[in-house]
């Protein structure tokens, strides 16, 4: 199987690319490095192209010389996912599956920059999906639990979407592409599956980035002796999902015999934990200072997924629950 992973140098994308290589996939990674880093795939055998414009010729050269890709080698393209060379490579049918992980996921940044993030998260995604039409088997796309807009019902089933409006431009952008995914199925027969990630964490997620979860930010603060920021009253709860579970969901969706047509699935653990519970662990086990801050605009108070659909239809099992994943994360930070 041949895969293109957009945002493949980001936290989730790099973990996904790594597992795909282990499973024997031929993997190309495209990332403009606006949020990801090459360090995230530095443990892999990486072949670098200068840019997206070289990608179509790379495959032409392989074909002309009768060569095959090394399954243990990732091809890295330092380009935007909407680069014409990247889109041309998709149109040339070089991939079976496109795992579309790239986005500008910062809620606060989207509140401050709605037009810029709409262009990044909607316009470029539409261009990617247009290129995929008729040229790939399936697109596995990273949506978000933020589409629920602070659901009234917990655990939240996929059918709750639309009962509350999204609370940020970022959330609305994900909401809009979910609608477009169904339109693509009807108009263009493009098969897209939408995975609604809840709060993803784990080793490799940097803590000083605006993209970070509270877990990684607090690990970073503890490691570096800086204050741990607590927003609001700390009683907000999240369905925190270890990154390996998310990788599993992507690969199950890619291999499924279903015709998805834009169908959406929650990707989470089906439980929740409060910020204060996690913060109490840091307070009890480390010498830390807490910095209290107001609630962030656009944030929801509670999230918890109903995962019955993805369990039943895709065979998903969130094998690593929060405290086990938290322990692995602490070990990666050198805090255990």
Task: Give a structural overview.
- This protein has 336 residues and is α/β, with parallel strands linked by helices.
- It is built from eleven helices and 14 strands.
- It has helices spanning 11-22, 55-64, 84-91, 107-112, 114-132, 169-188, 214-224, 243-255, 275-285, 308-314, 322-332, and strands at 2-6, 26-30, 45-48, 73-77, 97-100, 138-144, 192-197, 199-201, 228-231, 237-238, 240-242, 264-267, 273-274, 290-293.
- Strand 3 (45-48), helix 2 (55-64) and strand 4 form a beta-alpha-beta unit.
- The model has no long low-confidence stretch (mean pLDDT 95).
How are the SSEs ordered, and which strands pair?
Layout: E1 2-6, H1 11-22, E2 26-30, E3 45-48, H2 55-64, E4 73-77, H3 84-91, E5 97-100, H4 107-112, H5 114-132, E6 138-144, H6 169-188, E7 192-197, E8 199-201, H7 214-224, E9 228-231, E10 237-238, E11 240-242, H8 243-255, E12 264-267, E13 273-274, H9 275-285, E14 290-293, H10 308-314, H11 322-332
Helix pairs in contact: 1-8, 3-5, 5-6, 7-9
């Amino acid at each position: 199987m041949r895969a293109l992973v957009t945002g493949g140098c980001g936290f989730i994308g790099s973990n996904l690319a790594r597992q795909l290589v282990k499973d024997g996939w031929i993997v190309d990674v495209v990332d403009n490095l606006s949020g990801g880093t090459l360090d995230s795939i530095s443990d892999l055998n990486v072949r670098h192209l200068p840019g997206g414009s070289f990608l179509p010729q790379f495959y032409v050269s392989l074909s002309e010389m009768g060569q095959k890709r090394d399954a243990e080698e990732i091809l890295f393209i330092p380009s935007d996912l909407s680069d014409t060379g990247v889109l041309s490579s998709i149109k040339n049918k070089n991939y079976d599956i496109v795992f579309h992980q790239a986005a500008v996921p910062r809620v606060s940044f989207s509140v401050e920059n709605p037009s810029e993030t709409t262009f990044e998260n909607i316009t470029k995604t539409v261009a990617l999906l247009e290129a995929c039409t008729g040229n790939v088997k399936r697109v596995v796309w990273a949506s978000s639990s933020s589409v629920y807009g602070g659901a009234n019902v917990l655990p939240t089933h996929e059918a709750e979407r639309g009962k509350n409006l999204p609370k940020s431009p970022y959330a609305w952008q994900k909401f809009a592409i979910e609608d477009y995914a169904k339109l693509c199925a009807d108009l263009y027969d493009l098969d897209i599956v939408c995975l609604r990630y809840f709060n993803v964490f784990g080793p490799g997620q940097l803590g000083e980035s605006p993209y970070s979860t509270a877990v990684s930010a607090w690990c970073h603060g503890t490691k570096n002796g800086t204050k741990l920021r607590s927003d609001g009253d700390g009683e907000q709860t999240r369905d925190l999902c270890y990154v390996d579970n998310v990788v599993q969901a992507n690969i199950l969706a890619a291999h499924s015999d279903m015709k998805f047509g834009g169908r959406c699935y929650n990707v989470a653990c089906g439980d929740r934990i409060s910020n204060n519970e996690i913060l109490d662990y840091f307070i009890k086990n480390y010498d830390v200072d807490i910095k209290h801050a107001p609630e962030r605009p656009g944030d929801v108070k509670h999230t918890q997924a109903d995962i019955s659909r993805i369990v039943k239809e895709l065979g998903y099992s969130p094998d690593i629950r929060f405290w086990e994943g938290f322990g692995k994360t602490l070990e990666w930070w050198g805090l255990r």
